[in-house]
Structures are given as C-alpha cells and as structure tokens.
Design goal:
Blueprint: E1 6-7, E2 12-13, E3 15-21, H1 33-49, E4 53-59, E5 64-70, H2 84-88
Antiparallel strand pairs: 1-2, 3-5, 4-5
Length: 98
C-alpha cells in the first residue's frame, strides 16, 4: 500500500505515532471487560473530536497500544492517551477503580 500524505497550503506531511500508554498503577490488570470496551469508546470519541485517525488500537490488560496519524500542528503530546486526566474527569464509573 503506498504511503498516504496529507497537505495544507504550505506543508505536505505524514505524522504517524505508535503510543504505548499504561495506567498509573499497572500492577493490577484493570483494562478488561466493560472497562476495556469503554476505554476504546472514549479514545475513539476523543480522536474523532480532534480529527485524528486511528490506524490500529489494542487494549491489553495493563496497557494500550495505539497507532495513529496526527496532524502536524498538534504533535503527540496533545493526543488522547496523553490527556488521560481529562478522560478520567468525565465521571465514568470505570475510571474510579484506576
């Protein structure tokens, strides 16, 4: 598959990141069952709101692998995994166990 590039008025770019995200207390295997499903929904929703493309996402019991294409203006530090406090503050019951 040929590499897909995006462009705007003065830049042609392809910013792909592989992010590994671990909960603060990754001693326990907490990302399972309903919490795994809800986490995927929250990440997809946050990426959709920020106009990010998820290439691949896999939620393991103690960490998340996320491959995504990011707009060059944002950088990786503004992506959903780095914004976990905002997701946690959404009032979701499942996050209270983290």
């Amino acid at each position: 598959m040929p590499k897909q590039y995006k462009s705007n008025n003065n830049v042609v770019y392809s910013c792909n990141y592989h992010v590994l995200w671990c909960p603060k207390y990754n001693i326990r295997k907490v990302l399972t069952g309903n919490l795994e499903t809800r986490l995927k929904e929250l990440i997809r929703e946050a990426c959709r709101n920020m106009d990010l493309e998820i290439i691949e996402m896999e939620v393991m019991a103690d960490h998340v692998h996320l491959a995504m294409e990011v707009n060059h203006k944002f950088g990786v530090y503004k992506t959903p995994p780095s914004r976990k406090p905002r997701l946690k503050a959404s009032g979701d019951e499942g996050w209270q166990r983290l």
